[in-house]
Amino acid sequence: MIEVARKRPIRQIQLEVTPNPSTVYREAPAGTSVAIIKAYIKDTSGSIDRVSLAEGESAAYFDIVQEDTDTRKWFLLTHKPVDKPVGFVFDLKTYGYNKGSIIDKQVQIKVIEKNLYAPSFDRTHYYFQAYRYARYTQFAIGGQVNIGSVVATDMDNQTYNSQFQYSIFDLDAVMLFQLDPQSGKITLIADFPEKVKNMTFNVTAQDTGSPPLMNHTMVTVTVSEVPAYKSAGASGYYKLILLFYP
């Protein structure tokens, strides 16, 4: 009986570079972070053998370093000071290798002016009030209720350095609130746990400049057991008895 050797299937490699195209500021020193590379086996999400850069003039300015705790993540860093003028574009090719398989991805990195200012919030602490059962009142839209908004500005002159997004990283807050990354609008999307009387969490604004800069503000949402509505132009809250309860 003749046994036929089975070929081991070649597992596909996934190679992702974020952001791409990317940016680095003029005269950035060695060790400046430029992008994050995620490299893994597509069907198992396991790590691959290695990631590298194709040799060339552009590649001489950069290094790829593997993350210590997540072997699927690699950092694209500057290897030496960036001495190219603003507007210059580095063209790189990254490779992912795994047991005889190989994949490549083209990466572009544009030299820009240095990011000078982090986004700045107009308040250090925001205070909002939310009715516990607001999602079941006539003020809810699709089971969601607007709580309020945070506002930040960025003083950089260049558009690429002044654009930013808002984020919430607190896991408990993310379960209850949705934050619009562009407008800063906070929406209640789930019911408050019965024992929760208030919740305080951080909101972050991070820009897209090089180096990326961020700032934080605090948000406290107080849970009201009685519905409250603030009419246009009024200075206080008016208590209402609503007919819609869970």
Automatic annotation (TrEMBL):
GO terms assigned for molecular function: calcium ion binding
InterPro entries: Cadherin-domain_protein, Cadherin-like_dom, Cadherin-like_sf
Domain Cadherin: residue ranges: 147-226
Isomerase keyword on record: no
Keywords: Calcium, Cell adhesion, Membrane, Repeat, Transmembrane, Transmembrane helix
GO biological process: homophilic cell adhesion via plasma membrane adhesion molecules
Intracellular or extracellular location(s): Membrane
A cellular component term, taken from the record's GO annotations: cell-cell junction
Name this protein carries in UniProt: Cadherin domain-containing protein
Main location: membrane
